[in-house]
Amino acid sequence: MPSGISKLTCLQTLKVVVVKDGNHESGGLGEIEDLASFTGICCIRNIGYANNVEDFKKANINGKKHINSLLIDWNSIRGFADNSVFGVFISFDEKHRVRKKRFELEEVKLEALRPHNNLKGLHICDYPGIVFPSWLGDPLYSKLQDITLERCNKWDGSGRVLDRDLPCLQSISIIDCYMLKNIKIVQSSSLRRLLVEGCLYITSLHGICSMHRLEKLEIRRCYNLLIPAEEILPSKLQFVCFEKCFKLTSIPGLQKLPSLKKLKLYGCWNLELALEEKLSTMPSVLEIAHCPRLKKWCQRYGYEYIETSCVFKCSRWSAKDPRRNHNSLFQ
After folding, report:
1. pLDDT at position 304
2. How far apart are CA 51 and CA 55, in angstroms?
3. Model pTM?
4. In terms of DSSP H, where are the helices of the chain?
5. pLDDT tens column, 210-233
6. Mind listing the pLDDT tens digit for each residue in 314-327?
7. How far apart are alpha carbons 257 and 227 in whole angstroms?
8. How distant, in Å, are the alpha carbons of 276, 291, 301 from that of 272?
9. Cβ(133)–Cβ(108) under 8 Å?
10. 59: number of CA atoms within 13 Å, CB side?
11. d(C-alpha 311, C-alpha 326), whole Å
12. Quick check: 50 and 29 in contact, CB under 8 A?
């Protein structure tokens, strides 16, 4: 961090600045304390290489009300094809020697990076703490539209993270959080999209039935997930995907979605649908593959069964109908 940058109080952007934590010849993260004009998308990465927690507190991220999206990344595994999308891009030096990591230290870092409540987008990646700070999910963030939690591998679902309704929240993505076992999501007022992917040990997902405005639901590679009978899918869903949910036996409400446009069921070996009930509407794109217990259901309602790829298609579609091109699914 360039020494003296703290004097540029009207600075709005800061492109690809490397912080050498503990280097007395250059400034630390605390140098941005008074830079309240930072604007746009802010990325702070390689946080795992930082030791000076006091510098995190001094940085005063909470005082930067013009930052609309914040990406907080503990590592640099994620590549950025175009750093120009970030108004502020700060990275800690990977060559810096790191003290032995402690969960408590990483939790304090994230607590100190509390953003202003004008925030609209939040992405936390590779967070090694066990619990999230109290500000995550705080109803004070009434403008927040998008939350992504990615590779937070020590988090098991503890704490009040997504069980407080945020009135503008439209999208939640939970990706590769391996220790997550169950979670309750209470976002009934505005949520449009929910993605849960690569959470290998998750067994339950509570709150789906309360997401009355949900339009897009994607559950991928959640091998142990089961959906209880009371978690009926909300009726406004247009896009539904369950992929490689090996233990999944039922999807309550799937056959009663009048607005359904795209449906993908792939690699759900134990999934069954009630034989006496067909889909309430025929989606324009339908793909069911490697779900052997759905064969009888498809045969009952006249869907063509293709043995080689285990793909079921609606027999009323013609060969020229573009809806038969399953490669275009979810593009």
Report:
1. 56
2. 9
3. 0.86
4. 53-58, 103-112, 295-300
5. 999 999 999 999 999 999 999 999
6. 433 333 333 333 33
7. 17
8. 12, 8, 14
9. no
10. 23
11. 9
12. yes
